[in-house]
Design a protein that fits this description.
Elements (H helix, E strand, L loop, with lengths): L2 H16 L5 H17 L11 H20 L3 H17 L10 H14 L3 H9 L12 H15 L2 H7 L8 H23 L2 E3 H7 L5 H10 L3 E3 L4 E3 L12 H18 L1
Antiparallel strand pairs: 1-3, 2-3
Length: 265
């Protein structure tokens, strides 16, 4: 792919992505073509001393790809774009001007680790960021996932829920919603163990549902029985396993052990 064609496709991608209503299908098609062009130009995984301006363009394309992945809810694609960006964020960080998208993308990666319950990887990644510990509070893109992790460890799920509206970028809400899905299932398991039934209103409050239709859909997935007339739901109880204790064998073993002790004495 010629350099001129690569530049034209890059301009089309910027227009499609930055428009008020991003054309995600068009962005996806352009990104596929541009990645081929970056491979041919040796810029997808650059080595040596490539042109500085070319590196900036390549980094920008991959960053748009990372945001596009979240907007299309394609987490594996986000992982690939993030991995490809590491070369630009680390090996060429001193050569390239700072990117305004770097910390938003790094923050998204931190929340992604939380959604997968990879707490050790979360802390390792946090420690490797090009930011001092005393600067985290002033960086909303990093402080947001840091706060989420602390609230999760505390069990302050209401704070996690409220954090959705405080997200520093729209893309963050996708991962917060994913976190809430995990939290709801944990709360639901506790409810099933602690209660036989609950009023619908109380269940909605505990599970952070604002719409009854969402609660009913969740209840159906968990196979709960819903009584709309009584305004309650009953939890499906798992059959308790019956464990038979071999009494005769235990008695015989105890007597044999006692006889052996008498012989020793």
């Amino acid at each position: 792919m010629a350099q001129r064609q690569l530049g034209e496709l890059y301009q089309q991608l910027q227009r499609a992505f930055n428009s008020n209503a991003s054309d995600l299908n068009k962005c996806g098609a352009l990104l596929a073509q541009l990645k081929i062009g970056l491979i041919e130009a040796g810029l997808l995984l650059p080595q040596g001393n490539p042109n500085k301006e070319d590196l900036v363009v390549a980094r920008d394309i991959l960053e748009i790809g990372a945001f596009w992945s979240i907007r299309t809810r394609d987490v594996p694609s986000f992982d690939r774009y993030f991995a490809q960006l590491q070369t630009f964020y680390t090996d060429y960080s001193s050569l390239l001007p700072p990117s305004k998208r770097e910390f938003p993308i790094r923050g998204l990666n931190l929340i992604r680790l939380l959604t997968q319950n990879r707490i050790a990887d979360f802390h390792t990644t946090l420690e490797s960021l090009p930011i001092r510990a005393d600067e985290i509070a002033d960086n909303p893109y990093i402080s947001h996932p840091v706060n989420l992790e602390r609230w999760l460890m505390e069990g302050s799920y209401s704070k996690v829920w409220n954090a959705r509206e405080e997200a520093p970028a729209e893309e963050y809400k996708f991962f917060v919603d994913s976190l809430m899905g995990t939290i709801r299932n944990e709360i639901a398991s506790c409810e099933e163990a602690a209660y036989e039934s609950l009023p619908l209103r109380d269940a909605a409050t505990l599970l952070f549902f604002t719409k009854q239709s969402d609660l009913l859909r969740f209840a159906e997935q968990r196979k709960w029985q819903v009584n709309l007339v009584a305004g309650s739901l009953t939890f499906a109880k798992k059959d308790e396993e019956k464990l038979e204790i071999p009494k005769q064998k235990l008695i015989a073993a105890s007597l044999a052990y006692a006889r052996e002790l008498e012989q020793i004495v």
